[in-house]
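cron nightly-structures :: item 1 of 1
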Amino acid sequence: MPNIEIGKLLIILGVFIVFVGILLITVGKIPFLGKLPGDIHVQKENFSFYFPITTSIIVSIVLSLIFWLFSKR
C-alpha cells in the first residue's frame, strides 16, 4: 500500500505547483498587493531594499483561513 500514499503525495504536490504557478502569473495583476501601508521600501543610489510586512501578514491570514476551512472535515 505504500504506492497509494506516494500517488496521493504526487497529486497533492502537483496541485500545489499548479496553484503556485497561477499565483505567480496573477500576482502582478493585483494592483494593491505589495504596495500597502506598512510595506518597507528603501531606495538609494546603488541600493534598493523592499520588505512587504503588511502584505505578508495579510497573505498569511488568508492562507491560514483557507487551510483552517479545508481541515474541518
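cron nightly-structures :: done
The chain has two domains: 1-30, 34-73.
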